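Translate structure to sequence.
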């Protein structure tokens, strides 16, 4: 009996050592991803006062001095984009910020018709003409912050993910009654306001809804808010599952339907951090405010951003710096 006890003790010690070795190896291999380098900003500073009484006062006035911006440690930014049915435009554009130190997530939607200074002046067309790198650069320039990583998703992933978790319970924000038999669109959306259990196809229909056939419903901004709530609900349910077979299913969905510049070790590191996020209190969302009546380059219904309102959202939800983002760091194009 004593010999059996010693054997069990040695086995327990060996298992413990293996666990420690594997954990240390994991920590050594899976490191925090690198952050994109910030640009150099110019901030006002005063030159030293001159002792020469004949020196004009203007020469000691405030002058722009290049000062490097400092990024918060463990604070990452992501471009999230979903392509439309044809795959040429981005039906959904979001910027997410994840503060791994504070376990806080900010998600900001950029309306698809947002005005940009291009031949076709709506931001949702950037992807189709220049790809994800062009969209990433445009979004970064607009907001005034570096984007560390991107993910683009097609609609098959959205449907498959919702179905993989057995559907989701979601509050449909209004009565939806819309039919579009146009080839390539073929939308038939019919739901009553209230809590519904939605499968993948139904969830996709709800997030694509803009207005009813009679014109009632909500605008692009209303749709982005619905998309944010839907994505939060899906993420919360995905992270609540612990089944290994279901996890493998998630991996298959991701690899088949998501394009990203995140490496496997990057994803593994973020996954270990994300389990600490409280999706009830740790996730904040916003939509960039503006006016959808702008016209530019002959194109109507462009969404011109409210610069002051947007700046407040940038600083509250997305700011990766230890200092505030200022208007001169952004590039929110305005029609003259």
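Result:
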């Amino acid at each position: 009996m004593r010999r059996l006890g010693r054997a069990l003790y040695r086995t327990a010690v060996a298992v413990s050592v293996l666990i420690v070795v594997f954990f240390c190896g994991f920590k050594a291999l899976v490191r925090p991803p690198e952050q994109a380098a910030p640009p150099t900003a110019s901030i006002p500073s005063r030159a030293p006062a001159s002792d020469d009484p004949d020196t004009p006062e203007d020469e000691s006035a405030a002058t722009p001095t290049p000062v490097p911006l400092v990024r918060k440690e463990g604070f990452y930014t992501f471009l999230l984009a979903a392509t439309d049915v044809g795959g040429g435009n981005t039906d959904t554009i979001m910027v997410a910020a994840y503060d791994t130190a504070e376990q806080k997530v900010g998600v900001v939607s950029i309306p698809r018709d947002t005005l940009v200074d291009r031949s076709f002046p709506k931001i949702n067309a950037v992807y189709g003409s220049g790809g994800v790198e062009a969209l990433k650069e445009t979004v970064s320039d607009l907001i005034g912050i570096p984007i560390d990583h991107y993910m683009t998703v097609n609609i098959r992933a959205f449907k498959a993910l919702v179905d993989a978790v057995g559907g989701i319970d979601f509050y449909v924000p209004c009565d939806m009654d819309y039919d579009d038999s146009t080839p390539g669109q073929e939308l038939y959306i019919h739901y009553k306001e209230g809590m519904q259990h939605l499968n993948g196809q139904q969830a996709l229909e709800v997030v694509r809804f803009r207005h009813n056939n009679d014109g009632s419903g909500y605008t692009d901004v209303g749709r982005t808010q619905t998309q944010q709530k839907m994505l939060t609900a899906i993420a919360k349910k995905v992270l609540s599952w612990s089944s290994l077979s279901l996890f493998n299913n998630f991996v298959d969905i991701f690899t088949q339907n998501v394009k990203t510049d995140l490496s496997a070790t990057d994803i593994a590191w973020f996954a270990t951090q994300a389990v600490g996020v409280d999706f009830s209190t740790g996730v904040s969302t916003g939509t960039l405010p503006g006016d959808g009546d702008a016209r530019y380059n002959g194109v109507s219904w462009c969404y011109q951003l409210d610069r002051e309102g947007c700046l407040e959202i940038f600083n509250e939800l997305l700011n990766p710096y230890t200092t505030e983002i200022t208007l001169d760091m952004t590039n929110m194009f305005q029609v003259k």
